[in-house]
Amino acid sequence: MSPSTHHPHEDATYGPHGQGERLTAGTDLAARWLGASVMAASDESFGEKENLLTAAPAFFEPGHYGNRGEIVDGWETKRRREHGHDWALVRLGTPGLIGSVDVDTSFFTGNYPEYCSVEACGCEGYPGPKDLRDPAVDWVEIVPRSPLHGDEHNTFPVSDPRRFTHLRLSAFPDGGIARLRVYGEILPDPRQIDGLTIDLASQEYGGALVASSDGFYTSAQMLNRPDQARTMGEGWETRRRRDSGHDFAVFQLGFDGRIRQLVIDTSHFKYNASAEIAVYGCQQDPVPSVESDKWELLLEKTRLQPDTRHVFMIHSDQVVGAIRLDAFPDGGLSRLRAVGRVDPTARKKAGYRWFNSLPATQALRCLADAGIAPEFAVAVVDQRPLPDEWLDGPVLPPSTEQDVHALTAMLEGASYEDPVERRGS
Question: Are the CB atoms for 263 and 310 separated by under 8 Å?
């Protein structure tokens, strides 16, 4: 596989973005703010493995030396004098469908690996490095052994449609890699939100920026990160407007739901916070344009205070799948939260999509953990992809009422209609 490449330092002057913001090809599933971690590596003699997931672009100032040699901003192994290759195990911050992998060799010119490969697996629970090296783990090659170019972003497309939780990056035979980015679509485990009130817009649950008016200083993609902004640079800041317009950001929610509370945070923006905001919602798919009349008001135009976390109660039973934040006239915001409950129809849809995307071994493990009989579990997995109304169909594999109840709870949520009554039994 040949990677697409460009010189990494082109991104050093990313703004201005004209009348809109360029969006990346998905969320970085290996982002530290989502909880990703480099769990283990074969060697890290010159550069620590943790550097692979550093959020900032790689930086290098020649001539600086420490006890390990020249200080590098990346993962760099020693010169290998024996057979084999180096590797690093990465737990994704949140599981998802991987669209591309960026193996960034910025500043590594004479010491980068000649080739790399990437494998992925889907695991339940919290396996450690030893568990992941067990022969029983079903590792799938998503990037075959491919040549690398030095001092460049090496981007590899991924076509595997399954949901993964962990990666294994292999470097042949040794050398340095500055950063690893894993772009894709977040696909959370819907069982973990049953009965809960969550931030429907959060990246943690698949919320994503669709469009924004401006990303001159920092991206509107910062707004729905699940962490707290530590500085003004970790929020959304637009240029100063010299016209009569206003800025906006549009988000697809991770789950359709009923919003009960909006949190608009201007922390760290003391002299340049947005003066006012208004918020709209809709349930259209795809998300309509900003000018569409499909948007319905959730929060009328409201004054903001600088450096303040604002909490606004929302009294609407409207089910929304997207929100539009209007910021007047410009300025900065740290975070946006859309706190609410997942719509039952959305939960059901998410349950089937999640289960259908699991690697077979993980799907069987989920069914076993739910107490479903092995024979029924194998039959269910073999019938995937299951359509959304599969449990309502006339034919199910041989099963007990208990098995059907457990499977219904897994696919459609903890609060569900009795499946036996629903099927007319």
Answer: yes
Residue 197's pLDDT is 97
Please state whether the peptide bond connecting residue 113 to the residue before it is cis, i.e. omega within 30 degrees of 0.
no
d(CA 139, CA 4): 25
Q: What is the predicted pLDDT for the residue at 2?
A: 61
* Start-end of H helices in 370-413: 374-382, 401-412
The count of domains in the chain is 3
Please tell me whether residues 226 and 310 are part of one structural domain: yes
State the CB neighbour count (10 A cutoff) for residue 99.
Answer: 17
pLDDT digits (tens, 9 = 90+) for 49-91: 999 999 999 998 887 888 888 889 999 999 999 999 999 999 9
The whole-angstrom distance between residue 309's C-alpha and the CA centroid of its chain comes to 25
359 lies in the same domain as 330: no
Burial of 364: CB neighbours in 10 Å, binned 0-12, 13-18, 19+: middle
Find all residues with CB under 8 Å of 48, minimum gap 6, and list them: 75
- The DSSP code for 344 is H
Amino acid at 418: D
Q: Domain check: are 229 and 309 in the same one? A: yes
Owner of token pair 């690093």: 88
What is the rounded distance in angstroms from the CA atom of residue 274 to the CA atom of residue 272? Answer: 7
Query: Which H helix or E strand runs over 421?
Result: helix 419-422
- In this structure, are 233 and 336 located in the same domain? yes
- Chosen domain end from 165, 186, 207: 186
In angstroms, the CA 273 to CA 327 distance is 10
* Owning domain of residue 49: 4-186
Cα 118 to Cα 130, 145, 160, 184, 356, distances in angstroms: 18, 8, 12, 15, 23
DSSP letter string, 76-93: EPPPP-SSS-EEEEEEEE
Given a contact cutoff of 8 angstroms between Cβ atoms, the answer to whether 126 and 345 are in contact is no
Tokens standing for 281? 């919602």
Please give the Cα distance from 232 to 217 (Å, whole number). 10
